[in-house]
From TrEMBL:
The lineage of its organism: Eukaryota, Metazoa, Spiralia, Lophotrochozoa, Mollusca. GO terms for cellular component: extracellular region. Residues 1-24 form the signal peptide. It comes from the Eukaryota. The gene is LOC106067485. Pfam families: EGF_CA (PF07645). CDD domains: EGF_CA. This is Uncharacterized protein LOC106067485 isoform X1. InterPro entries: EGF, EGF-like_Ca-bd_dom, EGF-type_Asp/Asn_hydroxyl_site, EGF_Ca-bd_CS, GAS-SHBG-PROS, NOTCH1_EGF-like. One of its GO terms (molecular function) is calcium ion binding. It is found in: Secreted.
């Protein structure tokens, strides 16, 4: 019974959020409504929060807002226990628990008359540090679920702007910063709003405070790591970002379209690097040959000490030159040089009448 009441309250809460932006009656979808609340709650953290582990009320106001670019540095030493317990049980429990706290938050109080007189910015938590720990932990998990492509996170904004109502969160008043993003969920990327609200921006908006106001701004984005390529399209790689520890450490993998064949984008070096077909074992060499990597390609060659014989179509051993002939010649020359030097020395000190050996 209590659970049903909670669902109805959250649904009504988002109804208030949505009525000013649509002339039509919103479709009641409890999970979708909870996700919109959670998305707004965590987007407020992403775009307007600062690191509460250092500084004070006096300095936080002037700190740069950087969590649109990366997760907190250094990463949290300890995840918030409530978030961890809930999210370890799965995405649905995770969303339910975070939504429950988001509804009670000071951040979204403009939607609930019940909390309009609340003056504690950390509500429902006691301190700014705990609120910071809670939302950073929640962002870790929901970004991780997004990278795993959980079906529950698909198209929950229903075509609405991904940052709808962000300008009304309480944190914006302190940050004094505007964030605009023209994008929305689509058939091409039904997880786009989840990526924008829960994960750092690793492609666009990194140098504009998180803002991506238009398609043209996206194409010309100076913070786009692919901007110098012929095709500047930057794409997050969900299948290569499913390591939870890696996400906490900001080890995200993206993809850019490399022009040269045989090259692939490296997120580590932020440039196109050669694909080592030999190391990846994507090729097979026959007739006794081995793989040799080349820039953008490879070739099959014989091992050192072998040559390819066209008649037998195999690598055959090179016929070695007898080692004694080379070594003997070397020794003879060395002896001759030594004898000539000794003759010169004896001549200089008067032990010889000439320099002949």
């Amino acid at each position: 019974m209590a659970f049903k009441i909670k669902i109805l309250f959250i649904t009504f809460f988002y109804f208030l959020l949505n009525t000013k932006h649509s002339d039509s009656k919103p479709v009641i979808n409890p999970l979708r409504d909870k996700l919109r609340i959670v998305g707004l709650y965590l987007a407020a953290h992403k775009y307007f929060e600062v690191d509460r582990r250092t500084g004070s009320e006096m300095t936080w106001k002037y700190d740069e807002r950087v969590y649109h670019k990366y997760f907190p540095l250094p990463r949290l030493k300890r995840l918030h226990p409530e978030v961890r317990t809930a999210c370890d049980q799965g995405v649905l429990t995770c969303i339910d628990v975070i939504a429950d706290n988001a509804v009670k938050s000071y951040s979204l109080k403009y939607l609930t008359l019940k909390y309009m007189n609340e003056t504690n910015p950390s509500k429902p938590f006691a301190t700014p540090l705990e609120l910071f720990q809670y939302r950073a932990s929640a962002a870790y998990f929901l970004c991780w679920f997004t990278m795993q492509r959980s079906e529950y996170l698909m198209n929950y904004m229903s075509g609405s702007n991904c940052l709808q109502d962000l300008e009304k969160v309480k944190e914006k008043e302190v940050a004094d910063k505007d964030v605009v993003d023209f994008r929305h969920d689509s058939i091409q990327n039904p997880f786009l709003c989840a990526e924008i609200q829960f994960c750092p921006n690793y492609c666009y908006g990194r140098r504009s405070g998180g803002s991506v106001p238009s398609q043209l701004a996206l194409i010309k984005d100076s913070g786009n790591p692919c901007k110098h390529l012929k095709d500047p399209t930057c794409t997050i790689l969900p299948n290569e970002n499913t390591d939870f520890d890696g996400l906490q450490r900001n080890m995200f993998n993206i993809s850019c379209s490399c022009q040269r064949s045989g090259f692939i984008w490296s997120s580590r070096f932020e440039l196109c690097v050669d694909v080592d077909e030999c190391k990846l074992k994507t090729v097979t060499c026959t007739n006794g040959q081995v793989c040799q990597n080349l820039p953008g390609s490879y070739k099959c060659v014989c091992r050192k000490g072998y040559r390819f014989d066209a008649e037998s179509n195999q690598c055959v051993e090179l016929v070695p030159i007898p080692s004694h002939s080379l070594s003997r010649t070397g020794r003879v020359k060395a002896i001759q040089q030594k004898t000539a030097l000794m003759a010169m020395f004896e001549y200089v000190i008067g032990l010889r009448n000439n320099t002949e050996p």
